[in-house]
Design a protein that fits this description.
The protein is mainly α. It has a single domain, classed as MetI-like (MetI-like fold, Orthogonal Bundle), CATH 1.10.3720.10. The radius of gyration is 19 Å and the shape is globular. It starts with a helix and ends with a helix.
Length: 214
Amino acid sequence: MRDVAEIALRTLAVSGSALAIALALGIPAGLGLGRRRFPGRGLLVATVNTGMGLPPVVVGLLVALLLWRSGPLGSLGWMYTPQAMVVAQVAIALPLVVGITLAAVGGLADDWHLQVRALGASGWRAAWLLMREIRPGLLAAVIAAAGGILSEVGAVAMVGGNLEGETRVLTTGILMYTQMGRFGDALALAAVLLGLTFVLAAALTVVQQQRRRS
């Protein structure tokens, strides 16, 4: 297939953008929820936990309602574009990043925060020390978010439309070719998707092993 490289590159662009946004928003949110106690925190945590188990097709429906021409964000004109796919994937990955980060912070010893205060660390320095302490949990958040994004098909198909040359990615291409009976083409895309997943897992494993030795 001549378009395998094009579909793979589009998948990397969309999923990479979504992962970067989810991490940039989710890690600080998870750290904040884990470090602070405030009114309404329980409701926020419950919302995050619900989002972690929300079916992707429901996420796609909600994003479609927002981006549809008559929806609140319809003026953006993002429906059936890569931008809409990024939004859907961020909505899928963000609760995973926040929830796993929050769980990692909650797994620290009760006196850890007191030790940090005793060292005089505060603000960004305290946050940096916290991230170093929970780095295995942060790595798990990256793996879970990336896996959820790369393997998702329902939401991106709903908001992207699987348009050839525009919004077709590996998962939607596999689904389409399988439905058409073009199993050779579907297997070719599946091989690329598995390869990307393996490379990502291998890279993160190397990082994990290096940090354990340090």
